[in-house]
Amino acid sequence: MASQWIFLEPTVSVPKLKSTSLDKPFAPGQSITFVSTSFDPIADTTVNLDSAGFYFTKDGDVFLSISIRRHQNLIIFNSRQGGIWGHERLIDLQGVFPGPRAITHVTANATKYNIAFNNSSNIHTFTKVIQGDPTGVLHFESNSKPVFSDPVITAVIEN
């Protein structure tokens, strides 16, 4: 099992976005784990949309978006192709990150992504909408009170 540690760097145009290109596309059989040393569950009331999370990207499309929306107490899975967002899949945020750390583990297979939080045996699935494999990963925070630690530690694992 080989692994690649990646570091998400601030983007030039939007400093609250941190992204990286992967050594090779995120293909079936691979996993990516995001580890945040802290998680703040309290919503930021100073912004309209209190959102943070991760995008799996290629050529401007978002193959998988995992968005934490504290003000709605939701985690939202979605994709965006050609600038158009798809159908949101919602799960309750309550109790997903019970401890001080937040771990998000994503595994790709041929037709879906499997997502687990904090090493839970509860696996959430998101059916792939866009064909192909993402080549980049992006961490975003659209609030003044961050959800996750900085940096978020990220590892790519080939199964």
From TrEMBL:
GO molecular function, one term: carbohydrate binding
Record keyword Metal-binding present: no
SUPFAM superfamilies: Concanavalin A-like lectins/glucanases
Pfam families referenced in this protein's UniProt entry, alphabetically: Gal-bind_lectin
Superkingdom, natural source: Eukaryota
Listed transmembrane segments: none
Keywords noted in UniProt: Lectin
Domain Galectin: 18-159
Protein name: Galectin
